User: Fold this.
Amino acid sequence: MLEAGRPFPNFELPNQDGKIVKLDDFAGKWLVVYFYPKDDTPGCTIQGKSFTASRSDFEAAGIEVVGVSQDDVTSHKSFCDKFSFTIDLLADTNSELLNACGVGQSEYKGTMYWDRTSFVVDPQGELRKVYEKVNPQGHEQVLLADIKAMQSAEC
Assistant:
């Protein structure tokens, strides 16, 4: 697992609309990169809805949020459209970013899934905090409070 204090891996991945999103796009901003197992599953839906509902709170605090899974652009587009998500979902179909971050996998009913993991990246591109095996219910509020505390500590 990637550890706090290290640079976050550089990435260039397509979002749900096929637009390439890069780490450099977030230079000077706080960033939450949350990895989730699979589009249109119960926990992932809760998480996507929660980040969408609190998007204005994150934006007001100068924080961007992107979700990442191994699903492709078409799957992400369908997932976003079905639930009116307003956050970008990035398609890491070759698992390059998942592997670079050291995200683990767990078995569920005989199938391996990527563990729900969140990373907080500071405006300089340094990893500040890792959350492993996240409970999707209320996680966005934990992230928001923790990042605000980190921002206050820097003032």
Q: What stands out?
A: DSSP finds five helices and nine strands in the chain.
